[in-house]
Amino acid sequence: MVPFPFPLNETDIQNKRAQIHAALCASDAGFSQIPVSSIRRSTLSALLDLYDQAFFSGFLARSYGELTVTLSSRLTSSAGKFVFFKDPSRRMQCAEIRMSSDFLFRLKDGPFLLNGLSAATPQEAFLLVFEHELCHALETALYGESGHSSRFLALARGLFGHTETHHSLPTRKQAAAQKGIVVGMRASFFYQNRMLEGVISYIGKTATVMVADPRGPYTDKRGRRYTKYRVPLSLLKI
After folding, report:
1. pTM
2. Phi first, then psi: what are they for 230, rounded to 5°?
3. Which H or E element spans position 230?
4. HSE of 93, CA atoms in CB hemisphere, 13 A
5. What is the dihedral sign for C-alpha 96, 102, 104, 110?
6. Which of 65, 105, 132, 164 has the most CB atoms lying inside 10 A of its own CB?
């Protein structure tokens, strides 16, 4: 038994989600835009409070000494992450749900597929990612740990109608690949009024390009030396 209504039917889930979506967009003009231009800290706090009351009857607030929601620009391969900390007595002390601003601010035209559900807008996609992380917070509060087990999926399905545990939101690497930019290919770019050429070794918010340089600080297995440059994707020539 869990201390909140479970499982919920599809109509209840959709109604609760729609009410939260409407409340957040009405209170935060930046969040309501497409693409999303900004999101206030107060909106992130309201997001947690609204879900906790609507779906968990305040269970999360009672379970954690502190549970916060933050926006992270460092999350570029995952759209969200749940982390928690325990005190020496193993009691849940504080936890954090980190949501990726990198994904949120890049999303434009839906639909997006997340957790087995379709989201028409970036805001709806954001809520579905948040629901997934909420399930990790809930499972941890109930059982002391969380993963993507059958127990987790049962919680996600019964609370939010999720049927899967992954999303298809494009990562930076995937978005770059659609433009023909991939790791391992040669590319050139202007730097200090000269054209440099090297090999792309990593793609994130920028591309990491390794350029041959006899005095470079990086060495490959054959002893060849390189200098590393981080280049905006828009400045690469391939």
Report:
1. 0.79
2. -105, 120
3. strand 225-231
4. 6
5. negative
6. 132
